[in-house]
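Handoff note, outgoing to incoming analyst
You'll be picking up this chain. Sequence as last confirmed:
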Amino acid sequence: MNANNTDNVINEIENERNDKQLPQVQGIKEKKDKELLKKMKYKSVDKNIGIQSLYFAILSTMGYTLLLEKSKKHKTKTLTTIQLYQLYDQNGICVFNRDCIFEKAKQLNIGLNRPNKERIIRQFILNETINSIIQIIQNNPLVSIIEGRSKKNIVNEEVPSQHKIQIITLNVNGSYKVIDLNKQALTNGKIYHEALIGIFDYIHSDGIIINGNLFNIGFQLNQPSTSIIDKISQYFYEHSLLPSNTFVPVIAE
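Most recent structure output, in case you need it:
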């Protein structure tokens, strides 16, 4: 066998080896891409949950009383969902009831004849709830907000797009507290959310009532996160389970 033939054989062997390795390399890359997409999705879900928990903190700080429910479905990859069931103003008047949104979904035939009807209804209720919360916060004369970009629901046009507060400014006795919810979602929002979950676990219940005090602000982030969690949790355990004068803080910058 001459040198040229030898080179050709070697090249053919190398090509066959590369052809076999290529699908393996592509498979590894696709797996890594899927894992990365999952992590991004989980982070996005946690961010939205963190922002929602900050909404709860703001409402309570504004003096509203919240009846919250913890999702019975345990999620291992993302934060446990907390839902607002009812909301009462300082005069004890119910200004939000999730049952009313459910009835609205039925009247509008949301998800009718769709295979994923229950999922569509859940998304409708969630988006309507968040939008109602934002409207209530926005209506307060001592509050100003800057809305973030809301995503249009392309798949389910019958479901309204979910609005989002990006920055909120509270006027507290002439002192202005600025909170960037987008930046605080995975820090203060997550810490606050874990403290709320701590209450559910502490009293072994899927429902809790949080009574707010008008415009109390506390717990600035100037120490390690674990210390803040302990501090908030301890405060909740000492005060938030009492029948009156309970307090939920907003973590302000």
